[in-house]
Amino acid sequence: MWATGLKAEDGYNLWLRYTKANAPQLNSYRTNITGILPAGASPTIVAATTELFNGCNGILDRNLSLRINVENGTILFGKIENIAKWVTTKIDIPNNPEGFILKTIKENDKTFTVITSKSDIGVLYGCFQLLRLMQTGRKISQLDTMSTPTIQLRLMNHWDNLNRSVERGYAGISIFNWHTLPEYKDQRYKDYARANASIGINGVTVTNVNANAMVLSRPYLDKIAALANIFRPYGIKIYLTARFSAPMELDNLKTADPLNPEVQQWWKKKTAEIYYLIPDFGGFLVKANSEGQPGPQNYNRTHADGANMLADAVAPRGGKVIWRAFVYSQDADDRFKQAYNEFMPLDGQFKENVLVQVKNGPIDFQPREPFSPLFGAMKKTPLMMEFQLTQEYLGQSTHLVYQAPMFKEVLQSDTYQNGKGTTVAKIIEGETYQNKLSGMSGVSNIGNDINWTGHLFGQANWYAYGRLAWDLSLSSESIADEWIRQTFTNEKATIHTIKAIMMSSHQTLVNYMTPMGLGHIMGNGNHYGPAPWSNTLSRADWNPVYYHKADSIGIGFNRTSSGTNALSQYATEVHKLFNNPDSCDERYILWFHHIPWNKQMRSGKTLWEELCLHYYKGVNDVKMMRAQWLSLEKKIDIQRFEHVSMLLNIQVKEAIWWRNACLLYFQTFSKMPIPAKYEQPDQNLEYYKSLRFPYAPGNG
Ligand code: GCW
Questions:
Q1: To 10 degrees, what angle do helices 43-60 and 120-135 make?
Q2: In this predicted model, what pLDDT tens digit does every residue of 31-66 receive, in sequence order?
Q3: Which label site among 21, 159, 317, 371 has the fewest CB atoms less than 10 Å from its CB?
Q4: For ligand 1, is residue 168 a contact (CB within 6 Å)?
């Protein structure tokens, strides 16, 4: 306890804190809920029972009893056929087995709550929804909701290695302790599954896409099976990252050529072994012929040849193959174009159970990217969205950045590929081209730090990702609202302040890091801090100078027809809009145009002045975020208050670093002064260039 009277919290319980809600509804909840009646006894219903017990008892500060009959205030939950015995009212349930119904029913003078679905998992999702309503202070006395997920495969992709290091991980080491599995089953695995299930995540890959073949060896499959057993009641399937050369590495085959019958046989046998141990195995996730990973192109075969071979192996058991489109080549004139060039010709060649997983933007999870031109262009292949929750390029785990507005910006982008209104969201939902499969992946920001995500606010990105995958139409603001209420409080003024911080945070980061369509100007290797000057890596397309192209005339990458013509990969309408610097959204302008330093922008300011303005505004706005947070001192428990305060101090310091380093460097080309009204950099460019961080986290 501290002066606030609020108990210190470490963040471990995420949004599932189930503390006595300080909601105005608390008293009415006490009449709405007097007991719990599970219908059915499957492991999932047992999990739901535990969750409801802990949840209701915590929130209501009670000791509820398990009912054997429906009484006034009972929560009756179970599959539709199992609750039939207690309810006469007709209940229409969704066809989708993951969907659920939450309904207040009045029968024989009794009022009770029913949570039901075609499946136990749907029931579990419904239980979590009821708890969410209670934790967010909503009324639960007249419920009548039906909810179904928009996206079928809602996955978490871990980039965790077998030695527990996490590629691009900033929250400690991996939560998966391979050394002590399968015998030792850390409670954390269950808590992880609960958290995922509470937001609808239904699949995970537990290892890195830069894959180690060993994960497919029997000892590791036994460990994976142990995890799968823990995850199963929560509706979570395991998918495995498959190293394409695994047949050679594990069993000394001479080749991994996907058209070689021996290789095909090897994968079939391996798949059978996996299904024997993990009957609900989800399938394979593959990064091939990308950043040194082996793949079908090593044998002059295509991505489709590779994906289809694996697809054949898992198809009999309903498995999926998720093939990543993250490819680029040093021979291309523009990295932007590579994925489209490699994958478009293959549209229509993938087997039915293959999905192609595309990063939101054409390059690589930069603070802001226009949408990847593959969305909408591949008409016969279900495309999966890959978002990166781990903040590799967004301040890692010391910057507060709420990513939902960024996700929404991409999802709402109009591709025009099937006429106006063909948004990226509609493409990945499968609506536009009637794809049978749909999916989304979030690259995990989870590690073994006590609060899971390093920065407490990283939890909001995990939460928002899951909620969006369930319902793409949710607004980033309403998701923030839910998260704040469950994580902190239902008190209006505090919600308002935290929401303001969150909603401005992404644009603020873009302003102090990569405004106006800049991107990929971070430090080599560790991707930490600014290094727009960097030009020493062996491949041109790894160096920041390749991306900003600053020179004495201006800055930005010319992707119009007078440049690399990457813009022609978009539909005509988008192409036209971006192609003309006068109609191009200024948030993306340097992605597509090399703009002269003295060109007058829409504000009337020159490009240089406009750049300065963005960088300075970015820093000012982080300071504002910090001031807003500090105003909450009496409203947040001391432990979490200080945690976020200290991180905001780092963020302010690093925002100034980004601003100064970038502007001083770009100034060597623009030869224009940083307007005198601004506080001038207190270090010179040489100082910023001299900084080194050999032990920054996340880098191999
Ligand atoms: O963003 C880049 C990262 C790599 C990562 C790669 C990918 C897993 O810097 O660390 O590798 O993307 O998405 O495959």
A1: 10
A2: 999 999 999 999 999 999 999 999 999 999 999 989
A3: 317
A4: yes
